[in-house]
């Protein structure tokens, strides 16, 4: 386990950048993830301005302290040992603005709310996102998509902070957006805002599509339990959920974690599961599908943090 020294002087210096009330020491991260699992963060920082993000990145670099960004924790598993160093949340950066057919959303805004704002302005293009629980930043990070639509279909630009703490604007094509991936993690970018090019449409038609997609999501997904959402990418020529279902894995689990009986592509925290149990179920599913069908299931969900001390 990585050892990071967080003392009073460190917190005092950090509080010159971010208000003290937005700095929490030894913060439980299970309160910040959809799975409701994960250990503690050494220091949990909530930024409310772009300048704070730039300065916190530089601060972490100067102090040689690990730095981790989380959105709203919807497509993420944080290990039981927690995260060392600084964990940054952008949930207060949640503004959404519309100018004509252009929608600009800050990183911490939910992509669902961006789609709803587009609807309110009779703009079409973000309907697919009406059921995606992540933030705008997270949606760019993994080029989120659903029901035939993807972020790359409508994104024109992104404002990011790089590893050195510099703010820059990038064209969508600079992000190498592909199926559930981008170059954002490899480049260490922190997404600050996204700019979408939408089209004028009919309010009732857009609403009908979103209502239909919402019904499909709510009727087919186990939203009554904590989970990380869809765990696996779609393997070429197959559907992950169908492979898992045909492997007779639904209802199988380890500890409090279980493959959903409602949607085989979901693993649920059914009864106070630990992150270790949840990850073990993921590995069990991958092994079983590989043995039965010869197909490698690749994770869509991101796993971060430290293993617990034994």
From TrEMBL:
SUPFAM superfamilies from the UniProt entry: FAD-binding/transporter-associated domain-like, Uridine diphospho-N-Acetylenolpyruvylglucosamine reductase, MurB, C-terminal domain
Catalytic reactions on record: UDP-N-acetyl-alpha-D-muramate + NADP(+) = UDP-N-acetyl-3-O-(1-carboxyvinyl)-alpha-D-glucosamine + NADPH + H(+)
GO molecular function, one term: FAD binding
Gene Ontology biological process terms, A to Z: cell division; cell wall organization; peptidoglycan biosynthetic process; regulation of cell shape
Keyword list, A-Z: Cell cycle, Cell division, Cell shape, Cell wall biogenesis/degradation, Cytoplasm, FAD, Flavoprotein, NADP, Oxidoreductase, Peptidoglycan synthesis
Record EC number: 1.3.1.98
Location of this chain's protein in the cell: Cytoplasm
Pfam family, one: FAD_binding_4
Predominant cellular place of this UniProt entry's protein: cytoplasm
Keyword Zinc: no
Keyword Cell division: yes
Classification via InterPro entries: FAD-bd_PCMH (IPR016166), FAD-bd_PCMH-like_sf (IPR036318), FAD-bd_PCMH_sub1 (IPR016167), FAD-bd_PCMH_sub2 (IPR016169), MurB (IPR003170), MurB_C (IPR011601), MurB_C_sf (IPR036635), Oxid_FAD_bind_N (IPR006094)
Cofactor(s) the protein requires to work: FAD
GO cellular component: cytosol
Active site per UniProt: 180, 230, 300
Pathway in which this enzyme or protein is active: Cell wall biogenesis; peptidoglycan biosynthesis
Top EC class for this record: oxidoreductase
Residue ranges annotated for the FAD-binding PCMH-type domain, each copy included: 37-216
Role description: Cell wall formation.
Family: Belongs to the MurB family.
Descriptive protein name: UDP-N-acetylenolpyruvoylglucosamine reductase
Protein's organism: Allobacillus salarius
